[in-house]
Amino acid sequence: MTNPVGGVGTSAPAAATSTATSSVDRADQMGKDTFLQLLVAQMKYQDPSNPTSTTEFMSQTATFTQVEKLEEIATQNAALLSLQRSLSAGALVGHAVSWTAEDGSTRTGTVSSVRFGGDEPQAVVDGQEVPLGRLTEISVPASS
After folding, report:
1. Measuring CA to CA, which residue among 85, 87, 132 is closest to residue 111?
2. Which stretches of sequence are listed as region Disordered (predicted)?
3. CATH number for the domain including 103?
4. What is the pLDDT of residue 26?
5. Judging by beta carbons within 10 Å of its beta carbon (0-12, 13-18, 19+), is residue 49 exposed, middle or buried?
6. Domain range holding 99?
7. Would you say the pTM of this structure is higher than 0.70?
8. Is residue 11 part of a domain?
9. How do residues 26-84 score in pLDDT, each as one tens digit?
10. Is residue 101, in this structure, part of any structural domain at all?
11. % helix / strand / coil in the chain, to the nearest 5?
């Protein structure tokens, strides 16, 4: 279950934050390998006197192709999400931010740079790395 995040400028109590992931691995989902194993087993153990119809075989082949294409789309979406996170993180440089620290306190500062390399980009604020998921407020710095 996720915790709602308060809007900008609200005084909602600090809540623990977590980072989003770009892939989901569930044990109850069948992948293309499982589908292919089932198809091969069906062909191997079919009754020679009553073989699978060509229509049924083509339907199963089309389903296998759909599974492959959906897997490709999921991979492309994960790459797109990663790129979007990177672009969003880069746009934070020079902006004033507030975030919830590990001890639950709210801290503020200006983003001097952004570091990439882990699961989530890190905003560098006053020499401290802050995961983007911990940011609670972003504002444009006052013009000079």
Report:
1. 132
2. 1-28
3. 2.30.30.100
4. 59
5. exposed
6. 56-139
7. no
8. no
9. 566 666 777 778 778 877 877 777 776 778 778 878 888 888 899 999 999 998 988 88
10. yes
11. 35, 20, 45
